[in-house]
């Protein structure tokens, strides 16, 4: 019996953003558990990082790096905090976070609400050594020069990050996704590289699922040699058929209805990069079978967020256990052997 299924109806009575805030506050009251060792079959080296298991926490749950060690203790193999912007900002007016219960989905238009990079620094310094903690960086909404904001984020956060994620795919900062266009992306990646300090952490680029084939090819081409991995993907502005009354809320859709699109985009990027660049899959992953399918489509690692809302804190451990069994069933001695096997 999953305890979370008993408390879920009470949590769902609360406004989604309030429930999210309360979950962070509750975690902070508890000591972070030490991560349990995962099956050696799940351990891999990706972009130079030693990752104990390939199930990660996606950006957006712990924007301000309040509980990264707690999330590692819950069984995630790596945790991404952020998006953090150079200056603190309050984000869009509330309500801006919606549970689409019938669809097992979420729509958000948070707009990079966060306390700013500098405020997160002492918390990240304290969590150092607890595991792989990536820092996702973005631009302030009012920034005159968005690319300069990324350069600031890279320079400030690199010393505290296991890896950096350059997030240019949030739909909730007007114009941000335009940085995925070829000329802008070239300038951005040049600025990011020149802002990196000595001994830099790996740099990942997080893209949207709402891309045309030509965009995918351009991103793959420009990223090669400039970034260490691509995260595919952020939330979608598309709206597959949805049952919830919140279906038409403006913002990015995530969770179950994003799964098929994100799975397709993973295979697209695997083909576009010729399997030569590590890919990290995110979008609608809620069980071991979906994590496994994403890996077989080209993901070296996966991340999730929305399914935590519906499945609760035991999810990472359930998925890692199930994934280990699926890999064993199919005769893989290590997860790396399964990467991309369905697309080759
Ligand atoms: C409430 C919410 C806030 C998010 N905030 C961020 C963010 O700040 N930065 C980011 O890169 N992605 C953010 N995301 C996107 C997730 O990291 C992830 O890419 C997306 O939700 C797809 O995964 P999922 O279906 O498992 O949630 C957010 C998602 C949600 C639901």
3D structure, described in words:
- The structure is a single chain.
- The mean pLDDT is 96.
- Helix 5 packs parallel to helix 6 (182-195), helix 6 (182-195) runs parallel beside helix 7 (213-223) and helix 9 packs across helix 11 (315-329).
- This protein has a single domain, classed as TIM Barrel (Alpha-Beta Barrel).
- The protein contains eleven helices and 13 strands.
- Strands 3-4-7-8-9-10-12-13 form an eight-stranded parallel barrel, surrounded by five helices.
- The protein is of the alpha/beta class.
- It has helices at 3-11, 16-29, 68-73, 117-127, 146-157, 182-195, 213-223, 259-272, 288-296, 306-311, 315-329, and strands at 44-46, 49-51, 55-57, 78-84, 97-100, 105-108, 132-137, 163-167, 203-207, 229-232, 252-255, 279-282, 299-304.
- Flavin mononucleotide binds next to strand 4, strand 6, strand 11 and helix 10.
Instruction: Assign the CATH architecture.
Output: Alpha-Beta Barrel
Please report the total strand number as a whole number. Answer: 13
* Domain module tally: 1
* CATH class group: Alpha Beta
Distance between the first and last residues' Cα: 40 Å
List the secondary-structure elements in sequence, H or E: HHEEEHEEEHEHEHEHEEHEHEHH
Overall pLDDT level: 96
Report the bound ligands by name, code or SMILES: flavin mononucleotide
Q: Low-confidence stretches at least 5 residues in length (pLDDT < 50)?
A: none
Strand order of the largest sheet: 3-4-7-8-9-10-12-13
Radius of gyration: 18 Å
């Amino acid at each position: 019996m999953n305890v979370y299924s008993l408390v879920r109806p009470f949590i769902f009575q609360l406004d989604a953003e309030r429930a999210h805030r309360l979950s962070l506050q509750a975690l902070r009251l508890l000591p972070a558990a030490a991560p349990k060792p995962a099956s050696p079959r799940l351990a891999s080296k990706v972009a130079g990082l030693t990752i104990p298991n390939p199930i990660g926490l996606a950006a957006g749950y712990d924007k301000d790096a309040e509980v990264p060690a707690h999330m590692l203790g819950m069984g995630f193999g790596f945790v991404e905090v952020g998006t953090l912007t150079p200056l603190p900002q309050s984000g869009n007016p509330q309500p801006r976070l919606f549970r689409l219960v019938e669809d097992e989905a979420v729509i958000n238009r948070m707009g990079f609400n966060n306390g700013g990079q500098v405020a997160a620094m002492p918390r990240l310094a304290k969590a150092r050594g607890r595991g792989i903690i990536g820092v996702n960086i973005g631009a302030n909404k009012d920034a005159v020069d968005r690319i300069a904001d990324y350069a600031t984020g890279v320079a400030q956060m690199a010393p505290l990050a296991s890896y950096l994620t350059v997030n240019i795919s949030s739909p909730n900062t007007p114009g941000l996704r335009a940085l995925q266009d070829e000329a802008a992306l070239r300038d951005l990646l040049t600025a990011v590289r020149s802002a990196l300090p000595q001994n830099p952490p790996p740099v990942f680029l997080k893209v949207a699922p709402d891309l045309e084939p030509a965009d995918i090819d351009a991103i793959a081409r420009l990223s090669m040699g400039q970034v260490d991995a691509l995260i595919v993907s952020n939330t979608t502005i598309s709206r597959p058929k949805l049952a919830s009354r919140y279906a038409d809320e403006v913002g990015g859709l995530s969770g179950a209805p994003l799964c098929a699109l994100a799975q397709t985009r993973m295979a697209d990027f695997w083909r576009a990069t010729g399997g030569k660049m590590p890919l990290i899959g995110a979008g609608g992953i809620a069980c071991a079978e979906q994590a496994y399918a994403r890996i077989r489509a080209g993901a070296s690692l996966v991340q999730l967020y929305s399914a935590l809302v519906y499945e609760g804190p035991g999810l990472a451990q359930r998925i890692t256990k199930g994934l280990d069994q699926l890999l064993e069933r199919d005769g893989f001695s290590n997860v790396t052997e399964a990467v991309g096997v369905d697309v080759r």
